[in-house]
Amino acid sequence: MSTALITGASAGIGASYARRLAARGYDLVLVARSTGKLEALAADLRASHSVAVEVLTADLTNATALKAVEDRLRSGGPVDLLINNAGDSLPGTFATAKPDDLDWLIQLNVTVPTLLASAALAGMLERGEGSIVNIGSVVGLVPEYFPGIYAATKSYILSFSQGLAAEVGPKGIYVQAVLPAATRTAIWDRSGVDVASLQNVMEVDDLVDAALVGFDLKEGVTIPPLADAALWNAFETARRALPPSFANAVPAERYRTKA
Ligand SMILES: NC(=O)c1ccc[n+]([C@@H]2O[C@H](COP(=O)([O-])OP(=O)(O)OC[C@H]3O[C@@H](n4cnc5c(N)ncnc54)[C@H](OP(=O)(O)O)[C@@H]3O)[C@@H](O)[C@H]2O)c1
Fold first, then answer.
1. Binning pLDDT at 50, 70 and 90, where does residue 61 land?
2. By three-state DSSP, how is residue 183 classified?
3. Best residue among 13, 41, 139, 157 to mutate for probing ligand 1, ranked by most atoms within 8 Å of CB
4. Rounded distance from Cα 208 to ligand 1 centre (Å)
5. Which residues contact 69 (CB under 8 A, 6 or more apart)?
6. Which of 80, 125, 208, 221 could serve as 2's disulfide partner, Cβ 3.0–4.6 Å?
7. Confidence class of residue 177 from pLDDT cuts 50, 70 and 90?
8. For position 1, what pLDDT does the model report?
9. pLDDT given at position 217
10. Who has greater pLDDT, 139 or 259?
């Protein structure tokens, strides 16, 4: 029996992952701040799927609480699948954001998934298998379209996932970055954007079902709304064509100063 730890499991995408993974027979560790919601979901999943479900209440931006989740990953029962899903956004722009709020968002969207992946990886490497799923966003590819630093935190998730996959993929660890576009969850209530004003909003279970198709295919990057996969392949081909041109001991002609 495999065990999955899901952060942000009390609502939205994380709760949908919990339901889908329980249906696949995974035992679960559910992490979020809302104990009542986690306990209710856990009771439902134990009853409907006969799986073991632990609840770990944690504000992941609190150092002590984060350490407890890291400890669960390092020294509790083996966790075969980490779903790094907890995340949030900030209303307003970079210019209007308070420094403490910027720091908080970087903690939640960047530092937390990084440290949890680090904690989970130790046991996975020992066992020679395991999976880490990081929930990014399509806005990480098009940061010009989204004010503030949310998009930059999601660019990190993509970059982190691709780098980690290159490092640990050959050692049997599968890393997937999932890049949703607009998905109908409560995150929009806090973002300052009225989800009703958006077109083409995906339902959360459709998003997670698609992400799990990508998981089963062992895709490195899964973009559920992207109809034309050739667009992503062309983007990746162009990106991967760059490195040979970086090997240059002298500045490119256009940057050379006149003697
Ligand atoms: N919805 C979209 O359109 C969309 C698009 C692209 C990417 N995403 C990403 O998808 C992920 C999930 O978001 P969602 O849309 O499902 O939002 P959501 O419905 O608001 O769920 C967010 C989850 O994260 C948990 N969480 C938030 N802050 C936390 C903290 N400090 N400590 C622990 N848990 C915390 C929340 O639980 P508690 O409140 O109980 O702590 C909740 O379970 C995020 O990483 C988000 O950036 C969403």
1. very high
2. strand
3. 13
4. 13
5. 5, 7, 31, 56, 58, 60, 116, 119
6. 80
7. very high
8. 77
9. 98
10. 139
Q: Does residue 140 have its Cβ closer than 6 Å to ligand 1? A: no
- Phi, then psi, of 183 in degrees rounded to 5: -130, 140
Nearest atom, ligand 1, residue 37 CA: 40
Is 25 strand, coil or helix? coil
Question: Among residues 85, 51, 89, 52, which one has the least CA distance to residue 69?
Answer: 85
User: Residue for token digits 């990746």?
Assistant: 236
Is 150 one of the catalytic residues? yes
User: Do 107 and 86 contact (CB within 8 A), yes or no?
Assistant: no
Is any atom of ligand 1 closer than 6 Å to the C-beta of 211?
no
In this structure, which amino acid lies at residue 115?
Answer: L
| List 150, 156, 174, 255, catalytic entry | 150
**Residue 84, C-beta contacts closer than 8 angstroms, at least 6 positions apart:** 7, 112, 113, 116, 117, 132, 133, 134, 135, 157
Reported as a pLDDT band with limits 50, 70 and 90, residue 65 is: very high
The yes-or-no verdict on residue 193 having pLDDT over 90 is: no
Q: Is the CB of 86 under 6 A from ligand 1?
A: yes
Regarding the domain with residue range 3-231, which homologous superfamily does it belong to in the CATH classification? NAD(P)-binding Rossmann-like Domain (3.40.50.720)
| C-alpha 155: how far from chain center | 11
How far apart CA 20 and CA 193 sit, in angstroms, is 28
What's the burial of 196, exposed, middle or buried (CB within 10 Å: 0-12/13-18/19+)? exposed
Compute the distance between CA of residue 173 and CA of residue 164 in angstroms, rounded to an integer. Answer: 9
